[in-house]
Amino acid sequence: MKPSINIITLAVGDLERALRFYRDLGLDSPGIVGEEFIGDEQQAAGAVVMFKLANVTLALYPRTELSKDAKVPLGPAQTGEFSIGQFVESREEVNAVLEQAKSAGATIVDPARERPWGIYSGYFSDPDGHLWEIICNP
User: Fold this and answer.
1) Which of 2, 14, 17, 49 has the most CB atoms around its CB within 10 Å?
2) May I ask the CATH architecture of the domain 83-136?
């Protein structure tokens, strides 16, 4: 196996809400695609949102459909099991991204601050509870 990550899929409770949130953060997407693929009790539906980022695609997929697609039980939504990080150039940019996220509907769960290991970062959670860390590593 060649180590690489090409797509990160976030399970979301409301696909339209998640699309609006990430667009409000400045991410570009053609919107919901794959709606013509209708699922049923066993087969996952195909409606998904994709954002092409610098080196990876961020996908948003309904929690119910990801559960069916991966053949795993649908459990309760949980926060804090992992985070997605974004490096930015300056402390000011960390603060600006956190403010933009808040304006888009995110919850700031840990305001930007100096970390003991030498970075400046803060966390927000999107409307589905996915954690994002915005990081300046001087």
Assistant:
1) 49
2) Roll (3.10)
